[in-house]
């Protein structure tokens, strides 16, 4: 029973991070921290952006949960940290590798969900200012972006 509880805790933590990502993207990154996030909305040179600092910011709670959970005998906090870390890994693979092609893998797909995800993110990037943005989520993609023809990538 304990293993099932910990597995559920990892999955719930992972899912909860979608809400955290949406909220922080819409109200923090496109709000007071736009001066950092705007580097992600303009075409830049090189493999890194100032915006990449957010990966470090999001890694801190994961590390703290895992550290304090491990210090307490691998209690529930450790598994919350694992869920947050897995979300970060998945974010990197889907956002940086698949959508933005910062690493040249996963160039094309026929999967409607993944095409919709890429399309929704492209719509988000049409705005070069912090106001009037759309599609702030990461894994949740509104249905209107699914099922269209022509895979688009940025």
Structure commentary:
The protein is mainly alpha-helical and 154 residues long. Helices cover 58% and strands 0% of the residues. It contains five helices and no strands. It has helices at residues 2-29, 34-37, 53-71, 76-99, 112-125. It is globular, with a radius of gyration of 17 Å.
Features:
globular, 154 residues, mainly alpha
Helical fraction:
55-70%
**Class from helix and strand fractions:** mainly alpha
- The succession of helices and strands, N to C, reads HHHHH
Strand content: under 5%
Q: What is the rounded distance between the termini?
A: 45 Å
Rg: 17 Å
Largest sheet: none
Q: Can you count the beta strands?
A: 0
In round numbers, the mean pLDDT is: 84
Number of helices: 5
Label the overall shape. Answer: globular
List the uncertain runs: 150-154
Give a brief rundown of this model:
This protein is mainly alpha-helical and 154 residues long.
List the helices and strands and how they pair.
Elements: H1 2-29, H2 34-37, H3 53-71, H4 76-99, H5 112-125
Helix pairs in contact: 1-4, 3-4
